[in-house]
């Protein structure tokens, strides 16, 4: 016999709201409430709350309130993570985010699924599929990432995308459903390296 939590994390049908799941959910609600009610003078406190909420994090992370998640303890994040306003992560299955990942405003990461058959769905049984996001990824505003998706390394997801299938490394992908637009090239790197060098040559250092 398995618990609902064990079934949930295994991607099987489960029923939310009892046992360990209820306790994890309550803890998540408390920590996100404290986080969302914190002030701009409490940046260290915010990081402490996020580190208690998530399964694991890198040293550097910043999430702009408000933020919502189901459990938090199923979310693992690498170093140097940034999420803008209104980020939602529904983590009924593991969510793994790499290092140097940027989320625009209102990015949604949704692992939860519901049965297609209405009678089974009406029993409130549900399931989840894990989501993985690689290193050096920029996810544009209002993007929706659906259950079971893997996004590779060095990827840009265009604003408003609905990601329903895996995205390979080193591409720009856009649209609904999200599809690869083009590969990121050496010419892209050279162009942005030139602009970066110009910036550091010309910028007046603020004191």
From TrEMBL:
It comes from the Bacteria. Residues 5-59 form the Maltose/galactoside acetyltransferase domain. PANTHER family: ACETYLTRANSFERASE YJL218W-RELATED, GALACTOSIDE O-ACETYLTRANSFERASE. Keywords: Acyltransferase, Repeat, Transferase. Its EC number is 2.3.1.-. This is Acetyltransferase. It comes from Paenibacillus borealis. The keyword Iron-sulfur does not apply. Pfam families: Hexapep (PF00132), Mac (PF12464). SMART domains: Mac. InterPro entries: Hexapep, Hexapep_transf_CS, LacA-like, Mac_dom, Trimer_LpxA-like_sf. Belongs to the transferase hexapeptide repeat family.
């Amino acid at each position: 016999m398995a618990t609902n939590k064990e079934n949930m994390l295994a991607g099987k049908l489960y029923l939310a709201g009892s046992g360990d799941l209820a306790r994890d959910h309550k803890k998540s609600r408390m920590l996100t409430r404290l986080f969302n009610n914190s002030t701009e003078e409490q940046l260290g406190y915010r990081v402490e709350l996020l580190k208690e909420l998530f399964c694991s994090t890198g040293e550097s992370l910043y999430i702009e309130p408000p933020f919502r998640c189901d459990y938090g303890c199923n979310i693992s994040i690498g170093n140097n993570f940034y999420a803008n306003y209104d980020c939602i992560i529904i983590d009924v299955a593991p969510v793994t985010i790499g290092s140097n990942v940027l989320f625009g405003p209102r990015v949604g990461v949704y692992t939860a699924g519901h049965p297609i058959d209405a009678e089974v769905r009406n029993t409130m049984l549900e399931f989840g599929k894990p989501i993985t996001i690689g290193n050096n990824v920029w996810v544009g505003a209002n993007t929706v990432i659906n259950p079971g998706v893997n996004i590779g390394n060095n990827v840009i997801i265009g604003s408003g995308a609905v990601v329903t299938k895996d995205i390979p490394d080193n591409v720009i992908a856009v649209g609904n459903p999200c599809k690869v637009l083009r590969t990121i090239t050496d010419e892209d790197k050279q162009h942005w390296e030139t602009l970066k060098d110009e910036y550091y040559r010309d910028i007046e250092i603020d004191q």
